Amino acid sequence: MLTDHFTTAMFTSMSAPLSKNKTTKYRSPHYAFNYCVWLLGRRDYSQKELRDKMKRKEVSQQEIESTIEKLNTYKYLKNENELAQQWVKALSARGKGPYFIQQSLKKMGLPTPAVSDEAEKEALLKALNSKRIDPEVLVKYDPKKAAEISKAKRYIMSRGFNLQRAQQLLKDEFGS
User: Fold this and answer.
1) Are residues 164 and 105 in the same domain?
2) Residue 14: count of CB within 10 angstroms of its CB
3) Total domain count for the chain?
C-alpha cells in the first residue's frame, strides 16, 4: 500500500495546474545580464538586438536598461560603428549587395555606412562570377540569350543589388 500512496501523491502534485503567467516564474536577479553575456559569447550583438531578445524573454524595461548599462560599463558591447563595419565586411564576403546590407544593418539598429561605386562594382562582379554569369550579358541585349539575361537579373536582385544601378555600373565598366 505504500506504493499506492506514493503514486497518488506523485500524480496529484503533477496534475496541479501550472501558471500561465510567465512573469511569475522565478528568475535570478542577474538573469538578463547572464543571458546577454551568454549571447555575446556566441557572436557580437547590437544594443537593439539585445533589447529585442530580452523583451522576447519578458524582461522588464527597467532591467533591460540596467543590463545594457552594465554591459557598457564592463565594455562587453562593441562600438556600433565598428560592429557595422564588421557586418558590412562579412556580408560583402558572402556576395550580398548594398541594399541587402543596408536592410540588415537597419534591422540590427546599426548605422549604415555609405557605399562607394567602386566597392559596389567589385561586389557585383564578385557575385556574378560566383554564378559564372558573364557581366556583358546585362549590358548588351541579345534576344538569343533572353533566358540567361532574366536569370542574371533575378540573381542580382536576390543578392541585394538595384538592377538599374547594376546595369549602369556594368555599362560604365564594359561600355555599350
Assistant:
1) yes
2) 8
3) 2
Task: Name the least confident of 51-55, 58-62, 151-155.
Answer: 151-155
For residue range 105-138, list pLDDT tens digits in order: 999 999 988 877 787 888 888 888 877 877 777 7
User: Is residue 134, in this structure, part of any structural domain at all?
Assistant: yes
Same-domain check for residues 62 and 85: no
Residues 57-87 have pLDDT tens digits of 999 999 999 999 999 999 999 999 999 999 9
For residue 89, the enclosing domain spans 80-174
In whole angstroms, what is the distance from residue 113 CA to residue 149 CA? 31
69 and 106 share one domain: no
Q: What is the pLDDT of residue 123?
A: 81
CA–CA gap between residue 156 and residue 165 (Å, rounded): 11
CATH number at residue 45: 1.10.10
The one-letter code for the residue type at 52 is: D
Q: Report which of 114, 116, 157 is spatially closest to residue 133, judged by C-alpha positions.
A: 157
The one-character DSSP state at 113 is: P
104's CB contacts (< 8 A; 6+ apart) are 87, 91, 96
Question: Cell 546595369, residue?
Answer: 167
CA 146 to CA 98: how far, in whole Å?
26
